[in-house]
TrEMBL record:
InterPro entries on file: ARM-like, ARM-type_fold, Armadillo, RAP1GDS1
Listed Pfam families: Arm
Source species: Vicugna pacos
Main location: cytoplasm
Spans of repeat ARM: 248-280
Source superkingdom: Eukaryota
Keywords: Cytoplasm, Endoplasmic reticulum, Mitochondrion
SMART domains: ARM
UniProt-annotated location(s): Cytoplasm, Cytosol; Endoplasmic reticulum; Mitochondrion
Mitochondrion among keywords: yes
Protein name: Rap1 GTPase-GDP dissociation stimulator 1 isoform X6
Signal sequence, renumbered to the chain: none
Length: 498
């Protein structure tokens, strides 16, 4: 241990000495001046210089940033282009790129060079697994940048990746399985950029899109996963979503989910549900997906104990029932679903699942406007969660809760009265109206709800006891006209009922 510590100290002292002497700049200047000379002795020297820079900046963000500021990246890219036939120098350049590519500040400099073209050219030449692995290690961090994603697509990386998938898909060798995963993961990453994704979609007619579609029914879990994630990435604008739904992608995804119901692969479940959720966003797709049986396919995962799957399941159902009254009513009367939602509303360890459960509970009421749905939610103990949701830090969630609660109060106040009282709804509404930070729509819907609660004797009494008139009268001069008008109406109602 002492030897290791001593070695580390000597290493740090060496770096510090090089830094103080301006050694990095001297090495970079030498690289620039010798860059174009291709004789073996010079290439050996260039390899040593590159190695010095790697050792100098290894695992040291500030020294890596220093090299980037000195403009080392364009020099190294040029070096790679000129000396791509020299294995030792090429490898050293790749190690240097790997060092620098993790740093966010490097991405812009890389994007201004022809790094994508050079790496793809180099990648195509590699036959050995280890050599390709080195290129992959540079490509992955660089491909996080949207501009570089597009450059890599234009340089033909996708075709290389598809070829690797084709070659390795039936192999059971460990290194081939690893390479298949790396290639398909990188493919999915390239689709995260809007421009690169749209270029590869090609109106749904592109070769890449068609290839990805063929991964979904495959028997390889990694390809199923990559295929579903790729579809989720393609489904990032309405035009793509509409085209895919019209061309049968939903059935393919449902078949995939069906294969993973019992003891299924959680990552595949999550990816397929993500794709369905995105596809359900355009209004015209909702009815088509509902009639295709997506709701039934998704509900099969209601028993899942995996939060990522729960989260996407909830999001998919919420998207599907948006403005779809019949579907919302059907789901809202499903006791098993509602009871599970109420259970997940208490999943404090998983904020995403808890938030989505609350939002779906509210959506079932808002989109169905059904007394039967309200009865199911009240009987399952969901009211208290909607009241808690009204205090959320997110305005959109507060608003959704208040609208759902107003519908409960308007349609089934009698059966919900006790739950609203024990959840302290009236006190919460008083707080929301008195709080200057509350958004105008929160104030407006809180007053609408107050008026609806006046039909309940115990809740009416709570409203009187809390002197709502004082708070509401101040809102008559609110800058938002709708709030001011609702304040006048609420004040009249309170005055008459007092």
């Amino acid at each position: 241990m002492k030897i290791l510590l001593l070695h580390k100290r000597l290493e740090d002292e060496g770096r510090s000495a090089v830094d103080q002497a301006g050694g990095a700049q001297i090495v970079i200047d030498h690289l620039r001046s010798l860059c174009s000379i291709t004789d073996p002795a010079n290439e050996k020297l260039l390899t040593v210089f590159c190695g010095m820079l790697v050792n100098y900046s290894n695992e040291n963000d500030s020294l890596q940033a220093q090299l980037i500021n000195m403009g080392v990246i364009p020099t190294l890219v040029k070096l790679l282009g000129i000396h791509c036939e020299n294995a030792a120098l090429t490898e050293m350049c790749l190690v240097a790129f790997g060092n620098l590519a993790e740093l966010e500040s490097s991405k812009e400099q890389f994007a201004s060079t022809n790094i994508a073209e050079e790496l793809v050219k180099l990648f195509k030449k590699q036959i050995e697994h280890d050599k390709r692995e080195m290129v992959f290690e540079v490509l992955a961090p660089l491909a996080e940048n949207d501009a570089i994603k597009l450059q890599l697509v234009e340089a033909g990386l996708v075709e290389c990746l598809l070829e690797i998938v084709q070659q390795k898909v039936d192999s059971d060798k460990e290194e081939d399985i690893a390479e298949l995963k790396t290639a398909s993961d990188l493919m999915v990453l390239l689709l995260l950029g809007d421009e690169s994704m749209q270029k590869l979609f090609e109106g749904g007619k592109g070769n890449v899109f068609q290839k990805v579609l063929s991964w979904i029914p495959s028997n390889n879990h990694q390809l199923q996963l990559a295929g579903a994630l790729a579809i989720a990435n393609f489904a990032r604008n309405d035009g793509n979503c509409i085209h895919m739904v019209d061309n049968g992608i939903v059935e393919k995804l449902m078949d995939l989910l069906d294969r993973h119901v019992e003891d299924g692969n959680v990552t595949v479940q999550h990816a397929a549900l993500s794709a369905l959720r995105n596809l359900a966003i355009p209004v015209v797709n909702k009815a088509k997906m509902l009639s295709a049986g997506v709701t039934e396919a998704v509900l099969k995962f209601l028993k899942s104990e995996m939060p990522p799957v729960q989260f996407k399941l909830l999001g998919t159902l919420r998207m599907l029932i948006d403005a779809q009254a019949e579907a919302a009513e059907q789901l809202g009367k499903n006791f098993k679903l509602v009871e599970r939602l109420v259970e997940w509303c208490e999943a404090k360890d998983h904020a995403g699942v808890m938030g989505e459960s609350n939002r779906l509970l509210s959506a079932l009421i808002r989109h169905s406007k059904s007394k039967d749905v309200i009865k199911t939610i009240v009987q399952s103990g969901g009211v208290k969660h909607l009241v808690t949701m009204a205090t959320s830090e997110h305005v959109i969630m507060q608003n959704e809760a208040l609208v759902a609660l107003a519908l409960i109060a308007a349609l089934e106040l009698g059966i919900a009265e006790k739950d609203l009282e024990s959840a302290k709804l009236v006190q919460i509404l008083h707080r929301l109206l008195a709080d200057e930070r509350s958004a105008p729509e929160i104030k407006y819907n809180s007053m609408v709800l107050i008026c609806a609660l006046m039909g309940s004797e115990p809740l009416h009494k709570e409203v009187q006891d809390l002197a709502f008139l004082d708070v509401v009268s101040k809102l008559r001069s609110h800058e938002n006209k709708s709030v001011a008008q609702q304040a006048s109406l609420t004040e009249q109602r309170l005055a008459v009922e007092s």
